[in-house]
Amino acid sequence: MSRASIKISAARLQRLLSGDYTNPAEGLPALGTATADVLVLDDGDVGALEALDLDSDTAIFAPLGMRLRSEDLGGASVLAYEGGPASDDEEMVLAGGLVVGFQSYISATFVPLTCPTSIQMTDIADFESFHQDADAAVLTGTFPDALVHPLAMLGDLCGLGTEHACAAPQRRRAVIGPDGDCRPSLAGLAFAAGDGAATACTACLGATVAPAHLTAARVTRPWLSRYLLVLDVLRLAGRRFGGPIEVSGFGHRLNAELVADPVEATSAPVLLRVGAEHLVCDPVSHRVFRTGADAARLLEAVLAGDGDEPVDDVATHLGLSGATAAAALVELQGTLDKLDFPLRLAELA
User: Fold this and answer.
1) H-helix or E-strand spanning residue 278
2) Which of 29, 60, 73, 250 could form a disulfide with 38 if both were Cys (CB 3.0 to 4.6 A apart)?
3) Sign of the C-alpha dihedral computed for residues 304, 306, 309 and 312 taken in this order
4) Cα separation of 197 and 178, whole Å?
């Protein structure tokens, strides 16, 4: 298997386990109406493949040696693996030497990560620990080491977040176990009739966490999707800039008068401070640029302010006149445009 093929297999497996199908990876086919990725567990009932819409762009991860009938595949490609989540092994090994680990959320805090590792919610204790850590991050700015490790991959983001898109309604991904049911994830409920929720999903963790618990957690923590995106940013920033890293809205504000909690829009730029350096990161494109302290404080006032217009937030929280605030915003927007950074300040009102 070529290096390019291994990279594509890794991207498919990552999106299957995370449930994130919003950002197409390079080299993967465009998403159509068919199921994109299927994981057949070691003891899975392959007859369940008949319930899925498969085509030549579908990839099926199946145990090495499992007999699959070509007439059931719909032209899909089969990627054989050894080990995996349904075995006694904590690692899945694919052709070409790609190794992916599996750990429960609590176990991941004690086990060193030596390969790309999917961190899963395997029971209610994992789910509660995840929220305890999220609360601590908001209050103190301290993030779990395991979650910001560059090899960490948190599973089922749509089940954990408040606004993450869910792939279950389109059946983008599927997991097949011994009972013959198709599920959207390892911890998910069997696919049901109907479209399901596009966000605030209860299906992808429903076999592990009761829907009422999922809903209650989102009500008390409306910033969960923001937290998940910040974790992604920190995995990248830690590799590039080292640390410690302070994150605006998580135990830290440049402007002390601003609301301490992460009230920014979920996908708004993330403001970081690494030592004396100030960084702005787009959590979607992962574009990063350095800026000065004054510009960072201005941008923070726009992102986390509660005024009707950005100019009002800047004037109020930075103690500037309306004219001075307006001029500063024009200058900042000019800098963003020169850098081709995907942010329009006027649209944040």
Assistant:
1) strand 277-281
2) 60
3) negative
4) 26
Residue 89 predicted with pLDDT over 80 = no
User: What pLDDT, on the 0 to 100 scale, is given for residue 1?
Assistant: 67
The C-alpha angle with vertex 196 and arms to 194 and 198, in degrees rounded to 5, equals: 140
Examine the domain organization and report whether 271 and 188 are in the same domain. Answer: no
Pair (79, 228) in one structural domain: no
> For 273-314, what is each residue's pLDDT tens digit?
999 999 999 999 889 999 999 999 999 999 999 888 899 999
Question: What are 220's two structure tokens?
Answer: 């008390």
Helix axes of 124-140 and 211-220: crossing angle, nearest 10 degrees = 0
Q: What is the pLDDT of residues 66-87, one digit of tens each?
A: 999 888 899 999 999 999 887 6
Q: At what angle do helices 293-304 and 322-338 cross, to 10 degrees?
A: 100
199 and 244 inside one domain: no
Same structural domain, 52 and 133: yes
Domain assignment of residue 295, given as a range: 224-348
Q: Are residues 143 and 244 in the same domain?
A: no
Same domain, 159 and 286: no
- Cα distances (Å, whole numbers) of residue 102 to 52, 88, 89, 248, 258: 25, 11, 9, 31, 40
C-alpha dihedral sign at 155, 156, 157, 160: negative
Domain-ending residue, one of 196, 220, 244: 220
Alpha helices in 19-104 (DSSP H): none
251 and 271 assigned to the same domain: yes
pLDDT score, position 198:
81
